Amino acid sequence: xxxxxxxxRSRSSFVSTAKIKQNNWDLDAVLPIDYALTPxxxxxxxxxxxTNFCNLLGRDVYSEGDxxxxxxxxxxxxxxxxxxxxxxxxxxxEDELKHYEALxxxxxxxxxxxxxxxNRQFAQRVHEIEPIAMVLAxxxxxxxxxxxxxxxxxxSYRRDLWEYYRHFGTAIQKIGHHLVKDEGMHFxxxxxxxxxxxxxxxxxxxELLERIANLERNLHKxxxxxxxxxxxxxxxxxxxxxxxxxxxxxxxxxxxxxxKNRAQRRSQGLKLQELWQWVPTGYHLVPxxxxxA
Length: 293
Hints:
Shape: globular
Low-confidence stretches: none
Strand content: under 5%
Largest sheet: none
Number of strands: 0
């Protein structure tokens, strides 16, 4: 399992100055490592939901752990980064590795996969930086990409809550809620740093977002480097998913005119709701296909 190895910047004055926040929650209190679902609980879950969730977890577990490889790469370039960004990054990694462990426990108690097997599969992963090099250009680009990636995860995990987590009891459902909340905080933390450290470059954001979305659309697969992991699940969302995410980013950064008309706000809300409730024609549940870890 990845481990955090970095200097203690996370409680520095840089965090409070930049309004960086963290959702502090105790994984052991929510889902102890020996937590087990009863056979009766599992029998109540529709077979298609059980199979789909196992396949989904078989991807999500490892992509959360990939945060360590992205962090390690960025730290090799730490001299280029601001202290505020590095402090935020430490908190981000702490959260993502907590997600990795939380999903390992979830996967273990639902699918029965042993922790040793997960360790083996994770150790075999090849993290390819080159295909996503464009989004790693500098601190500004990293922050915009982080906003894009994390707001996508907010709605992805919200869909997962709607479709899967809620069927497996209170503890598993709480894990899903914490995932959504954490990713939302990461989105806001990146926004705060952009607004405080890179305001002079905000005019570049719309074009950069188009380039990021185009890169993800054309990757064809996820390269196991945490960023743009939604390339592996684009079939799960309606076609306007990325454009809706980009609009949320622009609104958060004050780069678009807020919608004030009540009817327009309602329409916008329905479009966002569709992001996590949409299913393709002919299905009652979005299909999730098993893939090698």
